[in-house]
Design brief:
The complex is a heterodimer of chains A (484) and B (470).
Chain A lengths: L8 H9 L5 H14 L6 E4 L1 H11 L12 E5 L26 H8 L3 E6 L33 H8 L5 E5 L6 H7 L2 E4 L20 E5 L2 H11 L29 E5 L9 H16 L3 E5 L7 H16 L17 H13 L2 H14 L3 H26 L2 E5 L17 H5 L4 H6 L3 E8 L5 E8 L4 H15 L11
Chain B lengths: L2 E11 L38 H13 L3 E2 L2 E2 L2 E4 L9 E4 L6 E10 L2 E14 L3 E5 L2 E5 L6 E7 L6 H17 L12 E10 L8 E6 L2 H20 L7 E6 L4 E7 L9 E2 L6 E2 L2 H9 L5 H10 L4 H9 L1 H8 L8 H19 L10 H12 L5 H13 L4 H7 L8 H14 L1 H8 L5 H12 L6 H12 L2
Parallel strand pairs in B: 12-13
Antiparallel strand pairs in B: 1-10, 1-11, 2-6, 3-16, 4-5, 4-15, 6-7, 7-10, 8-9, 11-12, 13-14
Helix pairs in contact in B: 1-4, 2-3, 5-6, 12-14, 12-15, 13-14, 14-15
Classes of the chains: A alpha/beta (484), B alpha+beta (470).
């Protein structure tokens, strides 16, 4: 078995330009790996035929882009023209979009090759990917453990090296938390940095697409590709796109870093806490200044998230009514039966629960009591973060309170999934960029990750710190090392 | 004696090139589902954009309605399930309508009355549902067509006032290029809320939806008030409900009972950021408002056009715009307006044309009006050359000569004709001399007949008077 996919984008690019390898070699290698690891359940839909065809076409195309011929996996809530897009839901399990998301257009224009659509929590609602209609993906480090979620499939896919470059989405930690559980690099960019056009909405004011990769450098390269203003998304920023690799490899001495006390409180397990403390020590030894800080309302973030994300979701998912696309109840007895049966059978338990809670939260006076109030407090969190960034370059802490837990655990406790995200949700509330970089392993050889939070549009600085840690620790992040 | 209390909600489709939240053509009425894209269909992953022309047009409407402008406004989602609503919510404005606290002045029975506007807000239209046998079809061409909704306070107390308000709003929006306001085609839709009461306390109201014409607004109000009165007089109660008005039966028919506190779960639309309307945009839009109907009417009457004709001109926007080209030129405006309302309108109606799609350019019009005014041609000649005036590039003189029409303006030649006619109509000459002045008209007619209408009428008149006085 060839091992080109263990290389980074730059190295692959050089080999492709030198004609040492062809795009098709990479596609075939990806499918070899995927087929050998089907038990991981990382993908919902594969496009072997389309990917090979595209790779063959590219043999006659001059390489004009750094991304030419590089394979990529896409979370299944990002629409791909003609390629089934399910959101891991029965209600869309036969949905073939008639248009491409803006970032998919970008990916195609840069001659990247889409391998398939990755598994996830249904409509991105969950933190373990276990709410998927297609069954949960498995953590490559220990197949009895959860992958995290909701971008679990993308995290597994990258971690196991099936396709080492993937896109996820993050509404309340859905890129960072599975990245932490699976030991990869995952970035949730600043809200508005990446177009949401074509991302099937969950919580519109929180959703953001981001790259998931093995290395910090590749992550920054993918963010370079997908960032930018989009006329089709009014919430996308007009701020010019940075070169997110520009600070990678730069020394970190003099960097001022804040650690929210909440992030190191009793909610975090000892092994995670001590690993983060080791990193704090490492950074201090290398000239960074670390201080413990307070962020207002940070402990309320989960509650706010539940109100805002579920309120928005209850409205965003109203369009799945069996009339225009997707699953539709056959021969309904009238319009009410069409709605009730289509949605009753089409949506899974967690999605229905969130739609019901969200609908309740927006009903009558509740919108004022809960939703509007939540927006106010959310603004308070944001302001507190922004104030901290007047003094600090970056903020760090863990992404998850523990390492990955057992598959099946917590399924009967709807609140657990939210508490899993207690450390990642504040970043979505503030609209700031947050990322995961692996910093080691817990007692069961399960990955632990560090969360790095940046000021708005300061992703380059986050990559600077992440790459420093990556280089210093030089971890072996191949989950199959021992097996091989 | 019961007093009616009436409030009106009007939806108006805005005349923009594209839809409000997508770049589809705003072409409702074309082949079903031809002006539709993934945004209009509410496809998963799609997001709304915001058409700047909609904001400007709605702002214009808010200014004309004398509203306070919400300079920082946002959009809201109104959530409900219905097949004609592709996203499961309508993007509208609930909390920060573009305009609030406005008014419109109406004239009823010679008195001016002020109707307060509660608010004007921007929203999208739904699909059009078409029901056929046991099937329902959806036309998404209408989905996302921009609307403004204008909500009055309950300030009206009679059918006449309600009709005057609707007519006034229609006239304002038509003349400000906000909408074509065709009630019959649905580009303007009226919902009337009416209750009756004998005391200061308002009665239970009924909402009559989507009334099909301005006269039906009046009829529906009177019919519904009578129905409510009959109920109350018989000790029954009015049900808080939605009705429709059946014009043929002259009857209001209940569609659904209104549930108290209908729950639309409004919340701010997260996909559209706040819109800032700065003073510059407000100034620009204010300056773009064309001359409105009331001002046109005033000018026409000042320039000697009868009030009746002034109103007729106002009712035809194209004719009014055309006439306005000549406000600053040296022509007889009364003559001009008579032509426009008379033979020219008859021609345009027959041909189903706008005056702007004819060959009657402003120079030709000035020429022909002046020729009529000076008596160089008469109305018969005008009728003869009308079609050519409208359809040929040629000048008025060219058209007249090409028709073989010769205007006899030579006094010597005319005098001969006049004398011949007088000789052959001695009875009429005697009548005139005996004081019957009308006889001169008959003689004039005979001369015109003789010359096939080509005699210069002014000159003939002069010659006749001279000869008869001899």
């Amino acid at each position: 078995m060839s091992k080109y996919l263990d290389l980074g984008i730059k190295e692959l690019h050089n080999k492709l330009v030198n004609k040492e390898i062809k795009p098709k070699d990479l596609v075939l290698e990806a499918f070899e790996r995927i087929e050998a690891n089907q038990d991981l359940n990382a993908f919902i839909t594969l496009d072997k035929e389309g990917a090979i065809k595209r790779a063959e076409e590219l043999e006659n195309v001059e390489s004009d882009s750094l991304y030419y011929g590089i394979p990529i996996a896409i979370k299944d809530n990002i629409v791909t023209k003609g390629l089934r897009t399910t959101c891991a839901s029965h209600i869309l399990d036969n949905f073939y979009p008639i248009y491409d998301a803006t970032i998919i257009e970008t990916i195609k224009n840069n001659n990247m090759i889409i391998i398939g659509k990755t598994n996830m929590d249904e409509f991105a609602m969950g933190s373990t990917s276990q709410t998927s209609y297609f069954g949960a993906p498995k953590n490559p480090w220990n197949k009895t453990k959860v992958s995290g979620g909701s971008s679990g499939g993308s995290a597994v896919c990258v971690s196991a090296g099936l396709v080492p470059f993937a896109l996820g989405s993050d509404t309340g930690g859905s890129i960072r938390q599975p990245s932490s559980y699976c030991g990869i690099v995952g970035m949730k960019p600043t809200y508005g940095r990446v177009s949401r056009y074509g991302l099937i909405a969950f919580g519109s004011s929180l959703d953001q697409i981001g790259p998931m990769t093995k290395t910090v450098y590749d992550n920054a390269l993918l963010l370079n590709l997908i960032s930018g203003h989009d006329d089709k998304d009014l919430t996308s920023s007009r701020k010019p796109v940075d070169d997110y690799t520009r600070l990678i490899g730069k020394p970190i001495d003099g960097l001022k870093i804040g650690v929210p006390k909440f992030f190191m409180s009793e909610i975090v397990s000892d092994e995670v806490k001590s690993k983060v403390e080791e990193i704090i020590k490492l950074l201090e030894d290398n000239g960074a200044q670390i201080e413990y800080i307070d962020i207002d309302y940070i402990e309320n973030a989960v509650t706010l998230y539940q109100i805002i994300a579920m309120g928005e979701a209850s409205s965003n998912l109203a369009r799945f009514d069996g009339i225009k696309y997707g699953f539709s109840k056959k021969d309904p007895e009238g319009i009410d039966d069409l709605y009730e049966s289509t949605r009753g059978e089409g949506f899974g338990e967690e999605v229905k629960r969130r739609i019901m809670v969200g609908s309740y939260l927006l009903s009558g006076d509740n919108a004022k009591i809960y939703y509007n109030k939540a927006l106010q407090i959310r603004n308070g969190i944001r302001e507190s973060f922004l104030k901290a960034f007047e003094k600090y370059d970056l903020i760090i802490g863990p992404n998850a309170t523990t390492t990955a837990y057992n598959l099946g655990e917590g399924l009967d406790d709807p609140l657990k999934t939210f508490l899993d995200d207690i450390l990642v949700i504040p970043v979505n509330m503030a609209g700031l960029p947050g990322m995961n970089v692996p910093i080691g392993f817990g007692k069961d050889k399960l990955p632990i990750g560090l969360q790095i939070i940046g000021d708005e549009f300061e992703e380059a600085k986050m990559y600077q710190l992440a790459s420093f840690i990556e280089e210093k620790l030089n971890l072996d992040l191949d989950p199959f090392k021992e097996v091989k | 004696m019961y007093t009616k209390t009436i409030g009106i909600e009007i939806h108006v489709e805005l005349k923009t090139n594209t839809k409000i939240y997508s770049n589809s053509i705003n072409g409702y009425g074309k082949t079903a589902n031809s002006n539709v894209n993934v945004v209009d269909l509410g496809y998963p992953g799609t997001l709304p954009t915001l058409n700047d022309a909609v904001i400007r047009t709605a702002l214009k409407a808010a200014i004309i309605l004398n509203c306070d402008i919400n300079k920082r406004m946002h959009f809201d989602r109104k959530n409900y399930f219905y097949p004609d609503l592709p996203k499961g919510y309508q993007i509208t404005q609930a909390e920060t309508p573009i305009g609030v606290n406005g008014y419109v002045d109406i004239d009823v029975n010679g008195e001016t009355k002020r109707i307060r506007i509660h608010d004007i807000h921007i929203e999208e239209d739904t699909c059009k549902s078409i029901h056929y046998k046991h099937h329902s079809f959806l036309d998404f061409n209408r989905a996302g067509v921009p609307l403004v909704e204008i909500v009055t306070e309950a300030d009206m107390h009679s059918a006449e006032e309600a009709m005057a308000y609707v007519e006034k709003l229609r006239e304002l929006f038509l003349y400000a290029d906000i909408s074509d306001c065709k009630i019959e085609e649905g580009s303007m839709r009226c919902d009337v809320n009416i209750s009756i009461s004998k005391t200061d306390e308002l009665g239970v109201r009924a909402e009559i939806k989507n009334i099909g014409s301005i006269s039906s607004v009046g009829k529906a109000i009177n019919r519904e008030a009578a129905r409510q009165e009959e109920l109350l007089e018989n000790g029954k109660e009015v049900t808080f409900a939605t009705y429709r008005y059946d014009e043929k039966k002259d009857e209001t028919i209940m569609m659904r009972v209104k549930e108290a506190g209908n729950d639309y779960r409004y919340f701010p639309e997260p996909d559209i950021p706040f819109v800032e309307l700065d003073d510059e945009i407000i100034k620009e839009v204010t300056e773009s408002i064309p001359m409105l109907a009331s001002e046109r009417r005033k000018i026409y009457v000042q320039r000697g056009i009868s009030e009746l004709n002034a109103n007729k001109i106002i009712q035809n926007r194209d004719i009014s715009d055309y006439l306005n080209n000549f406000l600053d030129t040296d022509i007889n405006l009364v003559q001009a307006s008579n032509l426009l309302l008379g033979d020219i309108s008859a021609y345009l109606n027959k041909e189903e044309k706008s005056i702007f799609n004819t060959k009657l350019d402003t120079n030709k019009f000035i020429d022909v009006v002046n020729k009529l005014d000076k008596g160089e041609i008469n109305s018969k000649v005008f009728k003869d050359i009308l079609v050519d005036l409208m359809e040929k590039e040629d000048s008025v003189d060219e058209i007249i000569s090409s028709k073989g029409i010769k205007i006899i303006s030579d006094p010597e030649e005319l005098k001969k004709i006049v004398l011949t006619i007088l000789e052959n109509n001695q009875n009429s000459v005697n009548d005139y001399k005996n004081g019957n002045e009308r006889a001169i008209k008959f003689l004039m007619g005979q001369i015109m007949k003789e010359t096939k209408g080509s005699a210069n009428p002014e000159l003939v008149n002069k010659l006749l008077e001279e000869e008869l006085k001899k």
